[in-house]
Amino acid sequence: MSFMQINDLNVHYPIRGGFFNTVIDKVYAVDGVTMEFEKGKTYGLVGESGSGKSTTGKAIIGLEKITSGQIFYEGEDVTNQRRNRNSAYNKDIQMIFQDSHSSMNPRKRVLDILAEPIRNFMKLSDQEERKRIKELLAIVGMSEDVLLKYPHEFSGGQKQRLGIARAVACNPKMIIADEPVSALDLSVQAQVLNFMKDIQNEYGLTYLFISHDLGVVKHMCDHISIMYKGRFVETGTRHDIYRNPQHIYTNRLLSAIPNIEPETRLERKVIRQKVEESYQKEQHQYYDEHGKVYPLKSISETHMVAMTGGI
Ligand SMILES: Nc1ncnc2c1ncn2[C@@H]1O[C@H](COP(=O)(O)OP(=O)(O)OP(=O)(O)O)[C@@H](O)[C@H]1O
Ligand SMILES: [Mg+2]
């Protein structure tokens, strides 16, 4: 049973121009997205730059205005209460930002960065608050020596850990993780991913994991949505997407997964070229006359693909 549903979410930005600065067009950053989330599962949201992933995440959490659509949380329509400080939704759904550096106030020490959500959502005494902050540092594997340091004193991986500590501070139900490891070295990526998995198992967290790289989400996600120009081109289980991809755009993303094994590098390059050629030749079959993605259709109980009747 899902505890949260997103129904036909739209975020459109007006483009202004001309002499009177009137609205001349719109950016359809999120254009009819529907999802549902079950407890303890990991959902991948994957697409190339500009496809609308961050806007989707921010709209869900309430940092972006919604043009239309609804969000239901535990049976209740919370669309208009997303930023309400006293709502359970605001406490239960947290986000790790794409750029952890700019999401932390450079003038605040770790102590205050971690105390902020605790002060907002939990009524703790000073002593209890200290205890909780120390617990959080232990959860993300950092020592108490960092309490008085500022964000710039940390490496990318450490900052990402602090972002995670801040997100889990008030025992959330769900974390929207926007490219949490993209800025990190491969070895550190694996560490942070493993560690996110561990805290998920321990606390039964649900993740919405945003990435532009299907390789990164492969071992994390139970369910994956592939996004292009604000719409989903394909959604399905990990097996559906990696073993039985149907949409040409999904195939293109799959062929773009970076290869770290030197033996198959050439082979992969040839595959990538072939996929790219067929993408250029056949892509018109997969998008309507305005270049928009078709509505999703079910092809199995778990697998949906955006297509016309003809494909
Ligand atoms: N405030 C805004 N005003 C106008 N257009 C915007 C605004 N924010 C985002 N956009 C546009 O919406 C689209 C989706 O942006 P978004 O940041 O969600 O993409 P993304 O998939 O997260 O990309 P990336 O992988 O680069 O982070 C882009 O075309 C972007 O230019
Ligand atoms: Mg983004």
Automatic annotation (TrEMBL):
Record key words, sorted: ATP-binding, Nucleotide-binding, Transport
Residue ranges occupied by any ABC transporter domain in the UniProt entry: 4-254
| Domain of life (superkingdom) | Bacteria
Q: Which residues form a coiled coil?
A: none
One family from Pfam that matches here is oligo_HPY
Q: Which SUPFAM superfamilies match?
A: P-loop containing nucleoside triphosphate hydrolases
- Keyword Phosphoprotein carried by entry: no
Q: Does the keyword Nucleotide-binding apply?
A: yes
Q: Could you tell me which InterPro entries the record lists for this protein?
A: AAA+_ATPase, ABC_transp_ATP-bind, ABC_transporter-like_ATP-bd, ABC_transporter-like_CS, Oligopep_ABC_C, P-loop_NTPase
Extract the GO molecular function terms from the UniProt entry.
ATP binding
Instruction: Return the similarity comment.
Output: Belongs to the ABC transporter superfamily.
Protein name according to UniProt? ATP-binding cassette domain-containing protein
